[in-house]
Amino acid sequence: MNINMTLIGQTIAFAIFVWFCIKYVWPPISSALHERQKKIADGLDAASRASRDLELAQEQAAQTLRESKEQASQILDQANKRSAQIVEEAREQARAEGERLIAGARAEIDQEIQRAKDELRAQVSHLAVAGAERVLENSVDEKAHRKLLDELAAEL
Amino acid sequence: MAAGNEVSPTYYIQHHLQNLTFGKHPENGWSLAHSAEEAREMGFWAIHLDTMGWSIAMGLLFIWVFRKAGKMATTGVPSGLQNAVEMVVEFIENLTRATFHGRNPVIAPLALTLFVWILLMNTLKIIPVDYFPELFIRLGVDYMKIVPTTDPNATLGMALGVFCLIIYYSIKVKGAGGFAKELSLTPFNHWALIPFNLVLEIIGLLVKPLGLGLRLFGNMFAGEVIFILIALLPFWAIWLLDVPWAIFHILVVTLQAFIFTTLSVVYLSAAHEHH
Questions:
Q1: A28, B71 in Cβ contact below 8 A?
Q2: In terms of one coarse class, where is the protein primarily found (chain A) (predicted)?
Q3: Does B1 reside within a domain?
């Protein structure tokens, strides 16, 4: 256990090892370590952000779904209303058309009745004249009694 | 203690605690010491080949492993080696951040080197005490003490390195005048007490590396002596004491490396602070 040059030798060796460590050993390991730390921190950050985004997206999707459902039901309602309206309109039209037809027919019938009445009237006047001729056995001057006959016919 | 049956326990212990010394002997010139006396006679101009060799080997092992991990370091998923290395680096980084107040890119790598290097050198102690001495005797080498931290030269050498850094940063941060003022005017800020302060502060300064080196050396040396004493037991009884002691030393080895590193960082932190 003598103190000798080994002391100096060891100091020199120590200095060299420390220098080498400072120069070549520490920087790559340390930088890799810190970079990884940063990467992990970033990753965790991104993960939390992504989960937040996901939540947001889910909420949005639910919102959209709700809106579209509402819209669909609205459209359905409208369509139902419209169809009811169309049916109502059609019905109305049909009734109007029917009434018009009925009115037309009635007018025609009235006309027909009028014509039949007129014809009948004419024929009745002839019949009446003929009947009267036969009753009187002589001819009646048609011209003289025309007025009377017309009056008669109008009374029928 | 394979060949030890015919040697005395004293010789056995002394043999195991003797470093392989190469130096300038007054009579034999530059040569390997063949006995403890010869090694002592060489004085300062001698070098412990085993201490230097094993410590440099451990240092290179540290550099090699950590450099390899550094080269293949990715920011992605780390491999096994990288994971282990990063664990150590992170541990040192946290230690430095907790104890070192200030900014200096040298401190953390310095602490890493100290910690891993001392840990590796200390760990050599777990190798049974007879393996390497016996092996080297077979190879014709008289002595081989493989744990560098049981050699005060090694521990004090590292402490000396730390001491130089303490002085360097003290002067760099506070300036030569500031450092001198700190040495002469604390703890008693009065001109009449300057000599007293100076003595106090310089002793305090010198005790730092001395304590650092001797603490590590003392712990490791004492442990080593116990291992050697245990090895003197009959072969069937050795494990009874050796195993618990070795397990206990797993703790001591780590703890001493940690203490050396932490104290170095604390001293360097103090060197950066203004009083």
A1: yes
A2: membrane
A3: no
Quick: pLDDT tens for B16-73.
888 888 888 888 888 888 888 888 888 888 889 999 999 999 999 999 999 998 888 8
B101 domain residue, yes or no = yes
Residue of B nearest to A37 (CA): B75
What's CA A69's distance to the chain center, in Å? Answer: 13
**Distance between CA B251 and CA B258 in Å, rounded?**
10
Q: At what angle do helices B49-71 and B152-185 cross, to 10 degrees?
A: 80
Which tokens hold the place of B166? 């303490």
Q: Which of A25, A34, A36, A38 to mutate to test the interface with B (most CBs of B within 10 A)?
A: A25
Counting the structural domains of chain B, the total is: 1
- Token digits for A57? 């997206």
Structure tokens at B262: 């932490």
Look up the ipTM and state it: 0.85
Q: What is the identity of the amino acid at A123?
A: Q
Taking Cα atoms as reference points, which of B62, B219, B43 lies closest to residue A7?
B43
Residue to test with chain A: of B153, B160, B221, most A Cβ within 10 A: B153
Length of chain B: 275
Residue window 37-66, chain B: list those with CB within 8 Å of chain A: 39-40, 42-48, 51-52, 55-56, 59, 62-63, 66
Q: Which amino acid is at B275?
A: H
Measured CA to CA in angstroms, residue A8 lies from A11, B44, B54, B265 at distances of 5, 10, 16, 22
* Nearest-10 Cα torsion for A84, A89, A91, A96: 170
Does some domain include residue B2?
Answer: no
| Number of residues in chain A | 156
pLDDT tens digits for range B122-176: 999 988 888 888 898 898 888 888 999 999 999 999 999 999 999 999 999 988 9
Give dist(CA B149, CA A112) in Å, integer: 145
